[in-house]
Amino acid sequence: MSLKLHNSLTGQKEHFEPQNPDNVTLYVCGPTVYNYIHIGNGRSAANYDLLFRVLNALYPKVTYARNFTDVDDKINAAAKDEGVDISVFAEKYMQAYDEDMAKLGNLEPTIVPRATEHIGDIITTIEALIERGHAYAADGHVLFAVDSFDDYGKLSKRNTEDMIAGARVEVASYKKNPMDFVLWKPSSDDLPGWDSPWGRGRPGWHIECTAMIQKHLGETIDIHGGGTDLLFPHHENELAQGTCCSDHSGGYAKYWVHNAMLDIEGEKMSKSLGNFIVLRDILNEQPPELIRLALLTAHYRSNMNWSEQLLHQSRSLLDRLYTIKRDGDALITTDIDIRDTEFFAMLLDDLNTPKAFANLHELTTRFFKAESDDERAALKSEIHAIADFIGVMQMDAQAWFQGTSDDSALSADAIEALLEERVAAKEAKDFARADEIRDQLAAEGIQIKDTREGTLWSRDS
RNA sequence: GGCGCGAUGGCAGAGUGGUCAUGCAGCGGACUGCAACUCCGUGUACGCCGGUUCGAUUCCGACUCGCGCCUCCA
Fold first, then answer.
1. A55: which strand partners?
2. What interface predicted TM-score (ipTM) does this complex get?
3. How far is CA A317 from the centre of its chain?
4. Strand B positions within 7 A of protein Cβ atoms
5. Å between A451 CA and B32 C1'?
6. What's the Å distance between residue A359 CA and nucleotide B40 C1'?
7. How many whole angstroms separate alpha carbon A202 and alpha carbon A379?
8. CA of A102 to C1' of B21 (A)
9. Lookup: nucleotide whose C1' is closest to A369 CA
10. pLDDT per residue over A213-227, tens digit each?
11. Cα dist. A79→A33, A367, A415 in Å?
12. Which CATH number, 2.40.50.140, 3.10.20.440, 3.40.50.620, 3.40.50.300, labels domain A18-263?
C-alpha cells in the first residue's frame, strides 16, 4: 500500500517515499492575510487537508506546517486604506482564516508558523546565503543572485534568458541580474520594520517560507504544496534559496505538489466580473459539508468549474448518504479501517477523488439494493468509514434534512401539525385535502416522503 | 512571443491498446391513493489529420481550439 503523487519537479507521477517514514514532513503555502479568502483558496486548503489525512492513515506521524504570511506590502496597503493598524489588520484575517478552515472541516495543521515570529530565522537564512555567495547586499536591499544557482528555472521549466527577454517590468538598478529577487528590503518609518545587519527593513516575499521550513521541518522536506500559480516565481525562488542556504544532499523538497485553479460558471473568478465568491459567505449560505464535498469532487490537478450544477450533484450524494444514515439506524455497524477500502486505494493514486467518489456512489446504490440486513450493515459500515475519513456526514441526519429554519420559514411544530392533519385526511380518503397540504408545504420549501414509519420531511435549501 | 497543461456522450468527469466508468439532467417502467424517496431499463462518447498495430478514444507526430504561468494571486 503506497501513495503515488504527481511531482511538479519531474512532471510525473511517482511513488511517494518519505525520507523518514516515522515523521513525514509536509509544508503548504498558506495565505497572505490581507482579506477574507475566496472559494479557490478553500479548494486548495481542502485538497491539502485530504492529502494530510491520507498521509496520516499511512504513517505514524506527519508534521504538517501551513504558514501565515503576515508581513507583506499588500497587507500594508490594505491596512492603510482602512486606516487600521497593520498588526491588528493581519490578526483579524488570520483569525477569520482559522474560522473558515474549521467550518470547512479541515484538520488543524501540526504547526502554523507566522512570518513575523520568524524574523530572526529569516535574517539567519539570508546571512547564510550571503556567506555562501548566493546573495548580496545593495542599497539597503539583499538580493538572491540567480546566476549562482545553476538549477534556477528547473521547477517551473523556464530559462532565465527567455524570461528576461519577455520581461515587462523595469529592472531595479541595484540588481546584478534582472532575475535576482529580493530577500530583504528597507522599510520607511511608517512601515513595519526590524533591525538587521542591512538596516531597518522587512523580508521579501519568498524568504519567510524557506526560513520557517528550515526551522520547523528540517533542511529537506518530503512534500511542498501550493497552487499552480505559485510555481513561478514563488516556488522557484524558494527552491533556489532553500537549496543554497545550507549543505544538504537531499535537496529542498522531494515532492512538489500543485493544485489547479477554480473558475466560476466557466469564467475566471474576479472582482470585476462580479463572480467573486468569498469562502465564508458561501459557508454561511450553504451547508459547509456541501461546499467541502463539492470542492473535493474535482481532481486537484484539474481546473475545476464551480457551478450550480456542481452543488446540485454534490447535494444529491449527501442526501443519499444521510438517507442511509437515517434509514439504516437500526443496523449494527462495525468499525472499518479506511485503508481496507477501495475508496482509499483510489485516493492513493495521486488523490483520484473523482474515481473514489464513483466508488462511493456504487456503495450507496448497493446499500439501497441490498437484500439482507447483514449486507446493508456491512455497506453502511464502509460508507461511514469513508465519510468520516473525508469529513462529511458528520451531522445528525435529521438536522441535515430539516436544516435550521430562519425566521420567515415554517417552524417544525407547524409542519408536524400540518402533517398530522394530512394523515387524518388520508385516512378519511380525502386525498384532495391531503394533496393540498403537500402543495402548501412544497410552496414553503418543505418536501415530504411517506414511509411505513410515518412521514419524513426535509427542507430545500 | 516563451514555458506548461488540456480537448471524452446534453452537462460534469474517470479510465483503458480489443466487455461496464460514475454522477447530474432527460425518457420509459416498478413502487405510491397521487407524489417524493428508492429500484429497474434507456443513449452510434472519446477535437482534426496522418503513422505504429491484427486492432487506438488509449501509443507517436503535425494541426486546430481552450486554459494556466511569465506581474500580486490558491
1. none
2. 0.92
3. 21
4. 1-5, 11-15, 21-25, 32-40, 67-74
5. 10
6. 20
7. 56
8. 34
9. B39
10. 999 999 999 999 999
11. 11, 54, 49
12. 3.40.50.620
